[in-house]
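Interim report, section 4.2 (structural modelling).
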Amino acid sequence: MAMISQLFVLSQRGDNIVFRDYRGEVQKGSAEIFFRKVKFWKDDGDGDAPPAFVGIFNVDGVNYFHVRVSGLLFVATTRVNVSPSLVLELLQRIARVIKDYLGVLNEDSLRKNFVLVYELLDEVIDFGYVQTTSTEVLKSYVFNEPILVDVAHVPSLGPAAIFMQGNKRMPGTAITKSVIANEPGGRRREEIFVDVIEKISVTFSASGYILTFEIDGTIQMKSYLTGNPEIRLALNDDLNIGRRGRSIYDYSSSYGSGAVILDDCNFHESVHLDSFDIDRTLTLVPSDGEFSVMSYRMTQEFKPPFRINALLEAAGSLKAEVILKIRADFSPSVTANSILVQMPVPIYTTRVSFELEPGTVGNTTDFKESSKRLEWGLKKIVGGSEHTLRAKLTFAQEPHGNIAKEAGPVSMTFTIPMFNASGLKVKYLQIAKKSNTYNPYRWVRYVTQANSYVARL
Amino acid sequence: MAPPAQSQRSPSPSQPSGKSEVSDLKLQLRQLAGSRAPGVDDSKRELFKKVISYMTVGIDVSSLFGEMVMCSATSDIVLKKMCYLYVGNYAKVNPDLALLTINFLQRDCNDEDPMIRGLALRSLCSLRVANFVEYLVGPLGSGLKDSNSYVRMVAVIGVLKLYHISASTCVDADFPSILKHLMLNDSDTQVVANCLSALQEIWSAEASTSEEASREREALISKPVIYYLLNRIREFSEWAQCLVLELVTKYVPSDSSEIFDIMNLLEDRLQHANGAVVLATIKVFLHLTLSMTDVHQQVYERIKAPLLTLVSSGSPEQSYAVLSHLHLLVMRAPYIFSSDYKHFYCQYNEPSYVKRLKLEMLTAVANESNTYEIVTELCEYAANVDIPIARESIRAVGKIALQQYDVNAIVDRLLQFLEMEKDYVTAEALVLVKDLLRKYPQWSHDCIAVVGNISSKNVQEPKAKAALIWMLGEYSQDMQDAPYILESLVENWDEEHSAEVRLHLLTAVMKCFFKRPPETQNALGTALAAGIADFHQDVHDRALFYYRILQYNVSVAERVVNPPKQAVSVFADTQSSEIKDRIFDEFNSLSVVYQKPSYMFTDKEHRGPFEFSDELGNLSIGGEAADNVVSAQRVEENDKDLLLTTSEKEETRGSSNNGSAYTAPYDGSSTSVFALQTHIESAISNPTAADHSPQASLAIDDLLGLGLPAAPAPPSPQLKLNTTAALDPSTFQHKWRQLPVALSQEYSVSPQGVAALTAPQALLRHMQSHSIHCIASGGQSPNFKFFFFAQKAEEASNYLVECIISTSSAKAQIKIKADDQSTSQAFSTLFQSALSKFGIP
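Predicted structure of the assembly:
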């Protein structure tokens, strides 16, 4: 029984942008109760604090679910003991559907199109029961035309947004196109985007040994093809799934053999796996809008894109020196961007002076006094290069014991376009042809991001 | 409906105050209403949008009702939709206006465009005005028969809406049976799904007053319906799949081949991208295999990977919801996850609520082979900048130490914590060392050496300080400075703000005194004087007590204050296993995230459709008792409530049955269960019928191996029970309160018994055939609670039994009270023998 009582979308300031009451069982003030709770709740780490801020909490018998998307809060309430995954998934999906329609999801676009949004919400849920979340199906029920907002300065929804960062090869409006609005020329551009997005987590021990590693990947698809042609997506021939009978971290034999071994994966509803076991081909009829074709997880050892070397040494009684070295272990044809390296330093650190290598450009260094951490930002790192930062710390008191225990770990965030660590590849993307002249644009893109990339001291 | 009136918020200066704009709009709408000029619909759209945006910000635009309705006499669907939205918002507060709308909506219900028919019907049913229900019946009736599935979809939910406005109108129009027909015959799966949702709600609500509805509700989980739905599962939308899967968890297959058929059919659902589908499937698998230990374990192995994938994909909120479920499974069967410990390592950027769950999982899965690595990892977190997590990590190390056999290395680590000289690390470590010493007194030598070096001035937290003081008292013979440290603490009595610490100090000084009297005498005198003068009642009382007992006899005092202690073998768990089972039973629900069973946070009327006689189940596990033993008083209260609730129920139902009818509040609904039971029996006697896969036959073998119950003891010949015993509830209640517990035992229930115990009724009938009668029963799988009674055949001597059966642990806890205590053992044997035959042909 999944009975949603109310559904509302709040701005960051807590204003109701849309509010739908499906069952009239929850009091009207719920949005305010919700917002007060969200705003004043802190993860104070008391241990006994209930998981109130994990997207779900209960006040006076009413369960509040929420997800944050593009700075907006999508909230559902219910009095029933529902499946939390179902409601959270639903909220994400509703955000996705609205985004499919409006092109851009933000407060402005939502306010301009609230009638359309109500129309959608009425079709998605009836009397608390989910009817459909398929953008495709909804198209035949929803009649308002979206009012498109200026996309120049708005960050877009979804992981695909990362392609927008100064990548001139991509048509700027592609990701922010509505699935139904016509383009100024009257004709829609036939195109399809397939994005392989990987998030990697690595922990290096103090001696540089890799303690844990994991890749969480997804193949994201967004189709603007008319007539829903069938698509075949071929992946690596040597792709293996599951490690039956082997421990997850028993990887040694597979490393270097070239085979890609996924621990596990899951697929979108529309994907047919009839020939997957034979030729690693996914067949699907992509529906309108953005969705993830496949998600996968891999703990097979891979070559981490960056090596981090961190050293913290006492230099006199009230001083210490930090040396951070970053080496980019990937091809020189690939460039990582938006790199940020952070390192907590001992809390009694009062002053830090930085020393970069001579001739470096595009680097920023900072000492965050309040959180006692160093920040080193690099705009770009070209594959194969190595970068070093030296920092001199001044302490307010004499440290006792091992100062390395008082600092670290070093963490790193980055984005590497056109690179993936898992080795999973889309070999080809075949679109069932309607005619000889039918040749839609196909974009297959790769990107790797750091999830938790940590080196211990 | 629709946007809320935000009346509590004063309109900002930039917003129109309302009045003049509204009358302006009224005028414009009126002009357009009759117009047939080209492009007029576009102008109308603009005006309608304005009206709705006013409505959203809370301006009262109800005065435009007439104009809005007039303008909607158009074929423009966008206009119509906006009008429906508007009407839905104002009809309820303004029934006069609503009457105006009825006509117009009814007309649209016959429109040739199915979209308009559907939308009009939805709006009509959403008016929620009780006076108009008779206008709904006609359109709903034709809507259910509409050729277009969209209209049928809307009509089905419309029936449910009608039920909530006027249940009798809905039932009188025979809508539930039409829905039932549609559910089993409609070609559109969303119509089917909506029928299922609506019928679950309607029949659950009706079941309390109607036997028939209760039968119908049970029929939803009958084999034909379940198979019909399962065979079409892939045609359903992902959300409807969740609905069907949830229903399947309630279904009781007749034999294990059926179980494997269902599991094979649903196997690929575990690869679904929607986490809700995966979790619903997992719940089915877990519940189906509860009584098949080996297969159940295979299920755990199978679901590991999909769960881990879901945890690491999706938004942080979704990921946490899944992680909570993984946490539940890990805590239930840690050994299955012991090789996956690295997945539970914390990432530096995770929020602390995620880390906390992971720390608990790491603690649980620690075993001989991975402890070293886990503890090494935990020690990294102990130096973490996130102090609460650092503390939890140290506690985790301590817990692992307490559950391990080889604590050598761990003790060293803990002692290293003490040397780290971070006050919170020291504080946590002290508390742990104290617990460790209580369990492993043999470590005292090593620990004391390190603890002795800690200056009490560096320890500020009351818990840690109390731990340190406890150790000073307990091991004062081994710690050179103990009397002097205690003395200096006593001297600073006034500065010690925590009563807990002062209490510990009193006791520690006493213990020290017994071991080293000359050195401590002074401190003891000061401490007792300070204690007696203390403003805190407990401290005062304890000091006075010590003082007097010392005056009375010093050796008695020693025996009281410092008796020889046994090592603590197991520390009390904070959550009872019954509560944990209950949460497991509610897998894939909020109970798992909140770590509480649903009755603790949900009103009765909002519980699921198949939760019956819930009060009973609740009572038996009321409150978060520190252990399994519920205090006697609570039992008393529970029992009182229990009997009251059933008798109240009896009254409200107006049933004319005699006393024994208390036993079966859902009597009649269990016929199907009974039919299934015989299936199980035949399947078990004929295992070859079920080898669809190697897995299946394996499991059957196992089932047989396990299945043979220990040969039941023959009933003692001298005890014969009255087959037609009668006892009225108030007598039962009275006796239950007065009689002492004669026997308290735990039995195992055979797997067949567990399988047959789908609802309390099955057991009731079985026990009745052994002349043991039920007076009250309740609970829900996996926890059932029964009160039975029996009488001796030849005299009016009663036996009263409380029996709590957990199907997940296959255990029955029995408490027997008897008028004639000397025969309670004989009765117990009889009872056990009857119980052990349950579910066996």
